[in-house]
Amino acid sequence: MVSFTNVVFYIFIFLSVYAQVFFLVTFFENRKKIITRNGRTSLLSYPAVTVVVPCWNEEETVSKTVRSLLDLNYPADKLKIFLIDDGSTDDTWDAIRRFENYPNIKIFHKENGGKYTALNLGLQHTETEFFGALDADSFADPESLARIMSYFEKDPNIMAVAPSVVVSEPKTFIQNVQTTEYFMGIYLKKMLGFLGAINVTPGPLTIFKKKVFDDLGPYSRGHNAEDMEIAYRMQKNRYKIEHCHDAYVYTNTPRTVRNLYRQRLRWIYGFINNTIDYRDVLFRKKYGNFALFTLPTGIISIFSVGYLFGRIIFNFGNFLYKKTVAFHTIGFHLPSIGKLYSSFDLFFINTQSFVFLVVLIYILVIFSMMFGKQMAEKKWSFSLSMLYFFPVFSLIAPFWLFKALYSTVVKRRPAWR
Amino acid sequence: MTSNVDWKKYFIVFLITVALFLTAAYLSNYFGGKKINELKSIQDKLSIDILSSETQFSLLSELSCKNVSDSVFSSELEELGNKLEWSEQNLGNTDEVNYLKKYYSLLQIKDYLLSKKIAERCKVKSAFILYFYTTAENCSECERESLVLSNLRDKYPGLRVYSFDYSIDLSAVKAMLSIYKIKDTELPAVVLDDEVLTGFHGIDELEQKVQTSFKLQEVKPGDAPKKS
């Protein structure tokens, strides 16, 4: 008899394979368009850009962030930099003030009101055609802005361009896992870009046409994921978002699982709640692949991670139960190595269909990581963290997932940090 | 910006995914079939071996105990049993697996009868346990009893354990069930030296009985072990 849980299991596998194949087909359709540039990028014209750096207790990294902006390969008179202290309680303000004499830097200080309020203050003072933000824990590659701007030059319909976000100097184990995850993110975002279905315009250096905000209004809180909310709003109004894969921005990532948990809780909570807010977009053909692919895939992945976790816990519990029963029945009994060796037999390798499909999903995910890495580092290479990404994330992701669902139900918004 | 939904692509990806599923199902079937064939070939070999021993035994009678006592198939039967159990859990309760299970039960009975004869006539030190369990319902005591018995079998190489699924549709097994008057409400059931023990029996109790069974043979070699 086919059990209910098995049917659910195969449905999730089917949907996961579908999503992966969809990305792969998109890749093969567009692979010739993915050209990674080397050296200095030059543009026909250099439109004026305002980059806002919202800071809240970022004394340690903000100087490096500002220096990376000053080192951009972009004419200084065309680049306005706003440093906005959103009521920091540490020495961020002092760190910012060291830059106040630069001709193209303006500094602001305001009461703490959340990142979106700092961004909106920047927007109010923006007089340039282009606007962007750079999180104060991230550093722009010197070529990044020019490469992003080349997209606007190429296609006047583009309203926003997101860069490739790469993990800056990973040191801890959990940072290495995230490095791999971000590589995969670059690949996925590029494919979503081809599909016209990007759902986040990340805080690290996404550049918008100022017109977006003039037309659609300023940033909103967006459940503490304002960079997701604005992307949803743009998609709803069918404003084109592109991904510039060879514009690199390096970002600091959480060093510990605890901090990662907080960050992801905020992201997933933002995803769930923004999707709920924009639920009328879902499956509506006129909103394109964003409504038919990106959002459903995100929703399905939340359910599959939850389901998979339940399955792992159930199997593990079952295993423990069996071992306990065995212990109570016959006492502690270790089979000898010889017996284990002789009982090894190819016969006992599981060959149910799902095994082949799970292996296939693994291979496709590893491909996406390797290709993402190729786009980021211009070389094909395999790293061990690609293998342990899956087990590590499938064990810890459910925690922030369930917490985010719980917080959504009880309507409690998670804090930033 | 116009919505650029490429329905053809959604459909093609769907077809590719279905094709991948079918491929996975085909592979699974292929390897499942290979496993069934492996089981069949083990059974065929065992069946020939048992038949040949029986024939040899009948031909030579008591004269050639030495040759006959070599024909102990315990490990092969055990391997077959393990693989069948695994197949039942992982390949599903298919007709083929069921058929193989019947065949296996029959081989066990034949092995039991033959080994018993050899033990009696040739003074081979051995003890026999017939074990009845059920898979028709969730029988946690059966699982525990199985653990006890496989543990005992590891400890005493001379102990031969034959296990039978109560719900199997095989007349030979049904005959044994009626000989020992075993009812489905009393499972698991263990038959040791013609004594029927129903319900769960712990390792200490059974171990003692197994040792006694071995001793019985030592005291009165050649006698059919009968419990008073």
Q: In percent terms, what proportion of residues of chain B is strand? A: 5-15%
For the largest sheet of chain A, list the strands in their spatial order: 3-2-1-4-7-6-8-5
Largest interface: A-B, 37 and 36 residues
Structural class of chain B: alpha+beta
Which percent range fits the helix content of chain A?
A: 40-55%
Average residue-wise pLDDT of chain B: 80
Main sheet specs of chain A: 8 strands, mixed
The appropriate CATH architecture of the domain at 11-32 and 129-329 and 355-417 in chain A is Alpha-Beta Complex
Q: Beta-strand percentage of chain A?
A: 5-15%
* Tally of separate helices of chain B: 7
Q: Could you spell the SSE succession of chain B in H and E letters?
A: HHHHEHEHEEH
Q: Report the biggest beta sheet of chain B as strand number plus sense, adding barrel if it closes.
A: 4 strands, mixed
Explain this structure to me?
The complex is a heterodimer of chains A (417) and B (228). Chain A has 417 residues and is an alpha/beta fold. Chain A has a domain at 11-32 and 129-329 and 355-417: Alpha-Beta Complex (Spore Coat Polysaccharide Biosynthesis Protein SpsA, Chain A), CATH 3.90.550. In chain A, 55% of the residues lie in helices and 13% in strands. Chain A has helices spanning 4-30, 62-70, 92-97, 115-125, 144-154, 173-195, 210-216, 226-236, 257-277, 288-330, 337-343, 353-377, 384-410, and strands at residues 49-55, 79-86, 105-110, 130-133, 138-140, 158-167, 207-209, 240-251. In chain A, strand 2 (79-86), helix 3 (92-97) and strand 3 (105-110) form a beta-alpha-beta unit. In chain A, helix 6 (173-195) crosses helix 12 (353-377). The longest helix of chain A has 43 residues, at 288-330. The radius of gyration of chain A is 24 Å and the shape is globular. In chain B, strands 2-1-3-4 form a four-stranded mixed β-sheet, with helices on both faces. Chain B is of the alpha+beta class. Chain B is elongated. In chain B, helix 1 (7-60) runs antiparallel to helix 3. In chain B, helix 5 links the parallel strand 1 and strand 2 (159-165). The model of chain B is unreliable at 219-228 (pLDDT under 50). The chains are: A alpha/beta (417), B alpha+beta (228). Chains A and B meet through helix 1, helix 10 and helix 12 of A and helix 1, helix 3 and helix 5 of B.
